[in-house]
Design a protein that fits this description.
Distance between the termini of chain B: 41 Å
Shape of chain A: globular
Helix content of chain A: under 10%
Strand content of chain A: over 45%
Oligomer: heterodimer
Low-confidence stretches of chain B: none
Mean pLDDT of chain B: 94
Number of strands of chain A: 11
Number of strands of chain B: 12
Number of helices of chain B: 0
Structural class of chain A: mainly beta
Structural class of chain B: mainly beta
Radius of gyration of chain A: 14 Å
Mean pLDDT of chain A: 93
Distance between the termini of chain A: 37 Å
Low-confidence stretches of chain A: none
Order of helices and strands of chain B: EEEEEEEEEEEE
Radius of gyration of chain B: 14 Å
Number of helices of chain A: 0
Chain lengths: 116, 115
Amino acid sequence: EPEVTQTPSHQVTQMGQEVILRCVPISNHLYFYWYRQILGQKVEFLVSFYNNEISEKSEIFDDQFSVERPDGSNFTLKIRSTKLEDSAMYFCASGGVTGESKNIQYFGAGTRLSVL
Amino acid sequence: AQKVTQAQTEISVVEKEDVTLDCVYETRDTTYYLFWYKQPPSGELVFLIRRNSFDEQNEISGRYSWNFQKSTSSFNFTITASQVVDSAVYFCALTLYNQGGKLIFGQGTELSVKP
């Protein structure tokens, strides 16, 4: 069964460093998303991406964040200068456009980001 | 603005008990989708069900059933004869009907099923 894959599963970084979180969405999906979940809290939307551009972003997604689909298969989230409060689980999701999977978002296993 | 509320933070039951997880949503839009996702201790988010606002028919899948009532803006989830493997955090979520819209999640309900 197709799935969303995320790497790495755990990233440890020093405050102020740049990190790139990587995702490979399901191959025939056209909508891509990043969400984050601070430990013990709910899942929060960061950004959605369609047709090679951001379609929506939340207040959390400030200038420190950027997304890219560099090669038609990967979808990346970059945090330019990490802060302690960026420590969270980051989930990538992709959404289908037709058939049974239309409007359903399928999630990867997440990347746990720890900022020290 | 849309909002999803899961008032039950934690529920603990003994195996084989039935349990219902509550979800109440708010939206001014008339067309939307509702979802349930499961987050087991391993951390991933697993899609369970999607329901659109046009279809108030209840759904049953094995031991799982969902009760959607527009009149009370609720989309409750019942697990019959719970098992230890059902232990997880369960999230209810809402998205508007437009293609590609973001998911708005509730706070989640942590279900613990004890043997």
